[in-house]
Amino acid sequence: MKKQILEIERLSAEELIDNIVERIEATIANRNFPNHEDCPPCDSRWLTTDEAMKALQISRPTLNNLRQAGKIEYMKVGRGYRYRL
């Protein structure tokens, strides 16, 4: 990104804030942010561990065994998991 020097002495506080906002908006407009449609969790309902255990009526160790055996679709989110049933 090209750096520019602003002469703050010649700008009022409002002008400085407007200038900063305009530059941020322009930067955001020029970026290619992924669409939420490209996000797997947005495509369908992913359940938390507790929700999956309740929906399947199984215990946590059984759910862990299904996950480790690759018999249930999951993804790791932070320190936890989300399950698509």
List keywords for this structure.
single chain; 85 residues; alpha+beta; two-stranded antiparallel sheet; 4 helices; 12% strand; rod-shaped
Walk me through the structure:
This protein has a two-stranded antiparallel sheet with strand order 1-2. Helices cover 46% and strands 12% of the residues. The chain has four helices and two strands. The chain has a domain of 46 residues. A hairpin with a 2-residue loop joins strand 1 and strand 2. It is rod-shaped and about 70 Å long. The longest helix has 18 residues. The protein is an alpha+beta fold and 85 residues long.
Q: Helix count, per DSSP? A: 4
Structural class: alpha+beta
| Rounded average pLDDT | 80
- Please state the overall shape, judged from the principal axes of the Cα atoms: rod-shaped
User: Ranges with pLDDT <50 over ≥5 residues?
Assistant: none
Strand content: 5-15%
Major sheet strand order: 1-2
The count of DSSP E runs of length 2 or more, i.e. the number of strands, is: 2
Q: Portion of residues in helices?
A: 40-55%
| Series of secondary-structure elements, N-terminal to C-terminal | HHHHEE
Please summarize the sheet with the most strands: 2 strands, antiparallel
Please give the alpha-carbon distance between the first and last residues. Answer: 45 Å
